[in-house]
Design the sequence.
């Protein structure tokens, strides 16, 4: 089954403790992206990647890191999480380099940072 | 900078009635436009997109959307709503021709509530 898989689905942690949210897709998609969803703000793009070793900032990249060493994986790293990063996070992928291709979304990761 | 506006936080409609969820956009060039739906505890699911050509786009689950370039709008419509259509709907835009062509911008979402 074609899918985008995020882990963990839920995480409660404390300020300053480094964490990584993994994202993997099995559709051989070139484009991958991370979003955060907050009430009243919709989805905001954090980082995106158009292919292996090619990443770029979205609208809200501060406090986050990403890497794209393999085509299928696009982990999101919070090196020193803070409470304002408490949010619902989504990973997505699509064919090509974005363009007119629809994105396939994972089921989300709910992060709570105390 | 590109942007999307969904002016209604919530739309209420009775089952069987037509529904419209509004979306306006702003890009410097020409847009690619998308509608996605989100059910509780799930990721977004693609409904339909506008690339070029016919201004009326048909998508999944009986939904359609009308692209209006002069009004910079891309409203989502369905002739007859179902209770199962109740969900959160997002409009999104990408500018085709700028250097940030791969950045996708979402609206804030509109909650659709369909009642019996």
Sequence:
């Amino acid at each position: 089954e074609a899918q985008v898989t995020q882990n963990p689905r839920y995480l409660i942690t404390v300020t300053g403790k480094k964490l990584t949210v993994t994202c993997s897709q099995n559709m051989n998609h070139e484009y991958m992206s991370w979003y955060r969803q907050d009430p009243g703000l919709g989805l905001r793009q954090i980082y995106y990647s158009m292919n292996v070793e090619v990443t770029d900032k979205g609208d809200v990249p501060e406090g986050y890191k990403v890497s794209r060493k393999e085509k299928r994986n696009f982990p999101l790293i919070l090196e020193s999480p803070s409470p304002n990063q408490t949010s619902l996070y989504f990973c997505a992928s699509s064919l090509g380099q974005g363009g007119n291709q629809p994105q396939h979304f994972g089921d989300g990761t709910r992060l709570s940072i105390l | 900078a590109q942007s999307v506006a969904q002016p209604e936080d919530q739309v209420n409609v009775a089952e069987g009635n037509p529904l419209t969820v509004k979306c306006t956009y702003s890009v410097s060039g020409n847009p690619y436009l998308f509608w996605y739906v989100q059910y509780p505890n799930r990721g977004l699911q693609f409904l339909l997109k506008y690339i070029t050509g016919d201004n009326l786009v048909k998508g999944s689950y009986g939904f359609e959307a009308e692209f209006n370039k002069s009004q910079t709008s891309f409203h989502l419509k369905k002739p007859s709503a179902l209770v199962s259509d109740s969900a959160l709907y997002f409009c999104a835009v990408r500018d085709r021709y700028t250097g940030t062509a791969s950045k996708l911008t979402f609206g804030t979402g509109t909650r659709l509530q369909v009642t019996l």
Summary: The radius of gyration of chain A is 13 Å. The first strand of chain A starts at residue 4 and ends at 7. The CA atoms of residues 22 and 75 of chain A lie 4 Å apart. Chain A has a mean pLDDT of 94.
